[in-house]
């Protein structure tokens, strides 16, 4: 269990602020005089012990393209919750011949990269954490970005992950060698890495989505994307535009509105919003959790099963399940928004849950501030001094914020991947990513995805999916070693059957009820979210069943798992 002293000692210094996605400096046009509020001070972060830096790719140029003699048992790609959790599981099982390759200079994934004002999680803290490492140190029911990043760093330190990290090591290519039964990875800069198994955990929220608005390059002020926030950009007393009102926008807006001279919010689609009571957790609350760890675990379980109980209301498209949550959200909006014209602008015109349901107790009050304008007309263009709308309105601006989300990968591979017979994963996934159980895909042996196709959370914590997948992948790696196999690959018939099941079940979900969202691939197919209960998915993948896979032995011939092999997988499943 995390203690405040442990977390303080274990937390590395935060990574340097990243530059904005796009910025052009120039003399700012004069802002209209407005009353301003002193900006809130950023929360202090714990003192830190920074991990030893990993040499950048350029510093390793001498080893570029040289075939290494060392063969890793496992190469993990990504050091967010999923990749770090995989490393912890491997070490716990006694597997130490692995490395975690991270393109950035620290652990944390999306919680390292997203530092915009108001950044926080919309899943309760006790559930948005590892089940094996509950923390009593959360300041609120819903943790903010800084605390989540500190928690990830604490876990990396506590479980000894930093020695296994390869920072500043972006994997750009992977090729499978069937004769050797191993993968050859290429790191940006040319370095080669050999590994028997590869676990890909790059995360879905890595690359910012550029809205490609006409005239962006001509703007004389500053443009920032929330995924590449630049703390050097001064917002106090400035005229600011916020483009996008999704999950990021509803956090940024309330956080900056008190400090800016004027905030123009550009909304394309109104959202379904539920209140988010987020009480402070007192020192007494934290001490009680430290003294009663069982109570903390029971609290996590209660949050988990409460989320499971809400799944049908969030996932299914039928009116019988939508009336209750729709009524709650409508009632909340009508209570909070008094102006009829503004209320109309903030009322969604699609089914509850078709797009991501947002949780915020600050958005509606922010929209009613004197220094905030909600603009629902489309953007015609960005000019050197502001934004012109389709309806002819013009907003003079100093700063433009793109809260336009991420390039979620519905199609194609996260990097170039070539499997058996030089098969391309980009080609296989060109119309949508597919994988058996969301983890393994035929023709790409010993390659496993964490939070892969069809296994994103539609109603609960992503960690609930990732932890189950981590145990599953560990079982596969252990079975391969036990049976002395060259490789394991999903049977095409088994994968096709799973994909068909996911497609059929998705037809009953609200995500396919007619609105556009990042859940759907360009051809309108859901291959991102799991169309069911998390508990059901966990049962589905509780045991790695070798009967669902083609097993190739050391002599390149197919091998059948024996009764002993099957029993060993049962034992691992029960003790995972």
Mean pLDDT: 89
Main sheet makeup: 8 strands, mixed
Helical residues, percent: 25-40%
In the predicted model, the low-confidence regions spanning at least 5 consecutive residues are 2-59
- Strand-pairing-aware structural class: alpha/beta
Beta strand count: 22
Number of domains: 2
Please name the CATH architecture of the largest domain.
3-Layer(bba) Sandwich
| CATH third-tier fold name of the largest domain | FAD/NAD(P)-binding domain
Distance between the termini: 19 Å
Determine and state the CATH class of the largest domain: Alpha Beta
Radius of gyration: 25 Å
- Shape descriptor: globular
User: What multimeric state do the chains show?
Assistant: single chain
Number of helices: 15
- In terms of DSSP E residues, the strand content is 15-25%
Output the CATH homologous superfamily of the largest domain: FAD/NAD(P)-binding domain
Question: Could you walk me through the main structural features you see in this protein, from its secondary elements to its overall organization?
Answer:
The chain starts with a helix and ends with a helix. A hairpin with a 3-residue loop joins β14 (379-382) and β15 (386-389). The model is unreliable at 2-59 (pLDDT under 50). It contains 15 helices and 22 strands. Strands 2, 3, 4, 5, 6, 7, 18 and 19 form an eight-stranded mixed beta sheet that branches. Strands 1-8-17-9-10-13 form a six-stranded mixed beta sheet, covered by helices on one side. α2 runs parallel beside α12 (462-482) and α6 crosses α7. The radius of gyration is 25 Å and the shape is globular. The protein has helices at 4-10, 81-92, 110-113, 145-158, 249-256, 283-291, 293-315, 319-336, 340-345, 363-367, 425-428, 462-482, 492-506, 534-540, 563-575; strands spanning 22-23, 71-77, 98-101, 165-166, 171-177, 182-187, 192-200, 222-225, 239-243, 262-266, 273-274, 358-359, 372-375, 379-382, 386-389, 394-396, 399-402, 416-418, 447-449, 485-490, 549-553, 558-559. It is of the alpha/beta class. The chain folds into two domains: 4-14 and 25-45 and 213-402, FAD/NAD(P)-binding domain; 64-107 and 161-206 and 408-575, FAD/NAD(P)-binding domain.
């Amino acid at each position: 269990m995390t203690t405040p002293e442990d977390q303080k000692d274990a937390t590395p210094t935060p990574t340097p602020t990243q530059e904005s996605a796009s910025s052009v400096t120039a003399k700012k046009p004069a802002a209209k005089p407005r009353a301003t509020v002193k900006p809130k001070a950023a929360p202090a972060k714990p003192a830190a012990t920074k991990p030893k830096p990993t040499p950048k790719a350029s510093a390793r140029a001498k080893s570029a393209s040289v075939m290494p003699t060392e063969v890793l048992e496992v190469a993990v790609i990504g050091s967010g919750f999923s990749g770090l959790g995989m490393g912890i599981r491997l070490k716990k099982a006694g597997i130490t011949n692995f490395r975690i390759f991270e393109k950035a200079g620290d652990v944390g994934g999306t919680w390292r990269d997203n530092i915009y004002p108001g950044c926080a999680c919309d899943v309760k803290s006790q559930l948005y954490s590892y089940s094996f490492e509950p923390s009593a140190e959360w300041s609120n029911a819903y943790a903010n970005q800084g605390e989540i990043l500190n928690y990830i760093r604490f876990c990396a330190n506590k479980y000894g992950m930093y020695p296994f990290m390869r920072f500043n090591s972006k994997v750009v290519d992977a090729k499978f060698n069937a004769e050797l039964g191993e993968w050859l990875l290429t790191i940006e800069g040319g370095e080669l890495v050999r590994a028997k198994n590869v676990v890909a955990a790059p995360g879905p929220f890595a690359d910012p989505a550029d809205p490609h608005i006409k005239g962006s390059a001509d703007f004389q002020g500053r443009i920032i994307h929330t995924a590449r926030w630049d703390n050097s950009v001064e917002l106090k007393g400035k005229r600011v535009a916020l483009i996008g009102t999704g999950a990021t926008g509803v956090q940024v807006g309330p956080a900056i509105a008190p400090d800016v001279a004027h905030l123009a919010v550009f909304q394309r689609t109104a959202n379904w919003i539920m209140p988010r009571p987020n009480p402070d957790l007192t020192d007494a609350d934290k001490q009680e959790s430290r003294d009663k760890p069982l109570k903390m675990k029971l609290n996590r379980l209660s949050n988990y099963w409460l989320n499971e109980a809400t799944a049908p209301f969030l996932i299914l498209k039928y009116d019988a399940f939508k009336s209750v949550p729709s009524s709650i959200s409508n009632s909340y909006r009508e209570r909070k928004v008094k102006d009829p014209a503004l209320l109309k602008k903030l009322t969604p015109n699609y089914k509850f849950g078709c797009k991501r349901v947002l949780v915020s107790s600050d958005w509606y009050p922010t929209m009613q501030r004197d220094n905030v304008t909600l603009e629902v007309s489309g953007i015609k263009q960005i000019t050197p001094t502001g934004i012109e709308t389709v309806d002819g309105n013009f907003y003079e601006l100093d700063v433009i914020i793109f809260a336009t989300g991420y390039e979620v990968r519905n199609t194609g591979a996260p990097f170039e991947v070539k499997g058996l017979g030089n098969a391309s994963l980009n080609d296989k996934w060109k119309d949508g990513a597919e994988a058996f159980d969301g983890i393994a895909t035929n023709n790409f042996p010993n390659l496993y995805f964490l939070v892969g196709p069809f296994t994103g959370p539609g109603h609960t914590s992503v960690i609930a999916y990732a932890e189950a997948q981590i145990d599953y992948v560990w079982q596969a790696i252990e079975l391969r070693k036990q049976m002395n196999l060259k490789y394991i690959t999903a049977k095409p018939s088994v994968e096709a059957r799973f994909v068909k099941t996911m497609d059929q079940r998705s037809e009953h979900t609200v995500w396919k009820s007619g609105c556009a969202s990042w859940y759907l691939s360009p051809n309108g197919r859901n291959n991102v979210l799991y169309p069911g209960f998390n508990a059901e998915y966990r049962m589905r993948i509780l045991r790695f069943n070798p009967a669902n896979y083609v097993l190739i032995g050391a002599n390149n011939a197919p091998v059948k798992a024996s009764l002993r092999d099957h029993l060993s997988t049962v034992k691992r499943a029960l003790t995972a």
